[in-house]
Amino acid sequence: MDSGLENIIAAETILSDVDGKAGRLIIRGWPVEELAATKRYEEDLHLLWTGFFDALGDPDSVQRSLGEARVSAFGKVGSLPRDAGVVAALRTGWSLLEDDESLDTALSLAAGAAVFTAAAVRIARGQAPVAPDPSLSQSADMLKMMRGEPATEAEARALDAYLCTVSDHGLNASTFAARVIASTRAGLGSAAIGGLSALKGPLHGGAPGPVLDMLDEIGAPEAAEGWIDAALGRGERLMGFGHRVYRVRDPRADALKTAVAKLPGTSGRIGFAEYIETVVLERLAQKYPDRPLETNVEFYTAVLLEALEIPRDAFTAIFATGRVLGWIAHASEQIAEKRLVRPKSIYRGPVPEAA
Ligand code: ACO
C-alpha cells in the first residue's frame, strides 16, 4: 500500500517527463524553458494534441478555430453563477459545453477557459463581460476580455510563457484525476472539470494567491525573518515551496522568473520576491535538513500573474487555462488505452459477526 501513490507507475505517456532529481521538465520533446521562451498557446496546444485528433490542422488553423470557439462559448456567459467565485464559474461554464471526446469539444474547453475566467473576473467586480475578439491570440484576447482594453504584445507573450510552462507536468494529481475520469468514457468535459476540481486545492494549484498574501503580509525585507520563523513555528506550510517530485529547484520557477523580468516595471517586486525566497529556503533547510525543499512553480507564477494585473481569485482558473491542454491530451491518451482505471484497496474495517 502506497497512500500517496508516489512509487506507483500508472500510465505510459508521450506527453511530458518530470525528472525530480535533475530538476528537468520535458514537454513532448521540448525543455520547458525553451517552450516558455518560444511558443504561443496555440502552438503548445498543437504540440500536445498532435496525434490525438485527426482534424487538428496547423497552429494557424488552431488559432482560427480557438477564436471561433471563444465566440461560441461567450454565448453561455449569461448562465454563469454571479457570486460563487472564478473557479466555480469556470466549472459551471465547462459543464454547459458538449461532453464528448471530439476535437470540437476539446477546443471549446480550451477556449471556454479563457472566456469563462475573464467573464467571471469582471462579474465579480460588478462589470459587464467583454466579448471575445476571434482575430486575436488566445492570450491577448484573454487579457483584453478581463481588462476591457487591449494588452501589450509583451503582456500577451508573458501570459503565453506562463500558460505553456504549466500546460503539462507528468501524472500530477489533477492530470491523474482527469485520466481516471476519461477512462470511464465520461467525456473530455467531465475529465477537465474533474481536473479543475483537483487543481483548486491549496496543495496543488491553489497556492499562488496565498504566495502574494504572504509577500504582502511580510511587507518589507526587514520583517521577513520574523514572519517566516513565526509561520514555521506555528507549523504552517509556506506556499510556493516544496514539491512531491522535485528534490531540486522546479525548472518552471526560473522559466517564469525570466518571463516576468521581460515586463517593464517589475524589477522591484522581483527583487523583493528573490529576497523572501532566499530567507525561506534558508529557514526550510534549517528546519528540514534531511528533506530538500525548494522553490516550486507557484512562487514566480504569483509574481508574473500579479504583474499582468490578474486578480488573485482568478489565479487557479488561469492555471487551468494552461493545464487543460495537458488534461485533454492525457485524457485522449487514456481513452486510447481502452482500460478502465480501477485500483484496489485493503479492507481494515469491522468484520461481520459469524451468522
Ligand atoms: N513549508 C513548510 N513545510 C513544508 C513545506 C512548505 N512549503 N513543504 C513541505 N513541508 C514539510 C512538510 O510539512 C513535512 O513536514 P513534517 O514531516 O513535519 O510533516 C516535510 O516538509 C516533508 O514534506 P513532503 O513529504 O515533502 O511533502 P509532500 O510531498 O507531501 O508535499 C507539497 C508536497 C504538497 C507541494 C508541499 O511541499 C506543500 O504543501 N507546499 C506548499 C504548497 C504549495 O506550494 N503547493 C504548490 C505545489 S506545485 C503544484 O502543485 C503546481
Main traits of this protein?
355 residues; mainly alpha; Citrate Synthase, domain 1; Cytochrome p450-Terp, domain 2; 2 domains; three-stranded antiparallel β-sheet; 55% helix; binds acetyl coenzyme *A
Question: Could you explain how this protein is built, in words?
Answer:
With 355 residues, the chain is mainly α. It folds into two domains: 16-203 and 313-337, Citrate Synthase, domain 1; 208-307, Cytochrome p450-Terp, domain 2 (Orthogonal Bundle). It has 15 helices and three strands. A three-stranded antiparallel sheet has the order 1-2-3. The longest helix is centred in the C-terminal third of the chain and has 23 residues, at 315-337. Acetyl coenzyme *A binds at residues 203-205, 207, 237-244, 288, 291, 293, 296-298. Residues 203-205, 207, 237-244, 288, 291, 293, 296-298 line the site of acetyl coenzyme *A (ACO).
Offer a concise description of the structure:
The protein is an all-alpha fold and 355 residues long. The chain contains 15 helices and three strands.
